[in-house]
Amino acid sequence: MVRGKTQMKRIENATSRQVTFSKRRNGLLKKAFELSVLCDAEVALIIFSPRGKLYEFASSSMQESIERYRRHTKHVNPTTFRSVEQNMQHLKQEAENMMKKIDLLEAAKRKFLGEGLGACSIEELQRIEQQLERSLSNVRARKVQVFKEQIEQLKEKEKALLDENAKLTENARLSEKHDIHLQPATKNQNVNQPQCNAESSSSSDVETELFIGLPDTRARHISHHV
């Protein structure tokens, strides 16, 4: 659950005021202690409750810290104090103005969301309506622009895909044409191959006969066969 923003003004309920004082007092004392330990600083804190009860914290000695403060402020020009006080008042006024502006902006935001319109006059309602119409017109214009940008991107993707498809088709056509040119040469090689085989077989048909004996006997043997 989101906590609401605390308004910087006096809490009217006495019980809530006392509870808030106790919680924030303890937190302030804890922060003072942490500051003195972590930063090795001399810290002195004095708090009086709404009922006049004293709460204090001192990292060393409260009396020594007060004396040190007096010695330090003794040599300071009073004009400096007035300047610091004026500066604080100016900052406080600016903070109040900023809080008022924030409240006005939050109220306007609720009205634009359709909340808290019961106290609005007819003129204020008309201004809110006109502002909403201008805002709606801007939203629609931006929506149309986004649609156009998306359509252009899709067209570019489509063109790229068509170009890629055309390249693939051309490569396939060239590959098919190359295969057709290679087929006649293969057929010629297949036709010439049987003829070469026949010539080689005819040239290899040589009659041979083995004869063992004297040369004269071989001559008579050959003439006998002829």
UniProtKB/TrEMBL annotation:
Domain MADS-box: start-end pairs: 1-61
Principal subcellular localization: nucleus
Feature: compositional bias, Polar residues: 185-204
Subcellular location: Nucleus
Protein name in UniProt: MADS-box protein SOC1 isoform A
Coiled coil: 81-171
Pfam family, one: SRF-TF
Gene Ontology biological process terms, A to Z: flower development; positive regulation of transcription by RNA polymerase II; regulation of developmental process
Coiled coil listed as a keyword: yes
Keywords (A to Z) from UniProt: Coiled coil, DNA-binding, Flowering, Nucleus, Transcription, Transcription regulation
Domain K-box: 88-180
Keyword S-adenosyl-L-methionine annotated: no
Example GO molecular function: DNA-binding transcription factor activity
Region listing for Disordered, in residue ranges: 176-204
Cellular-component GO terms for this entry: nucleus
Database matches in SUPFAM superfamilies: SRF-like
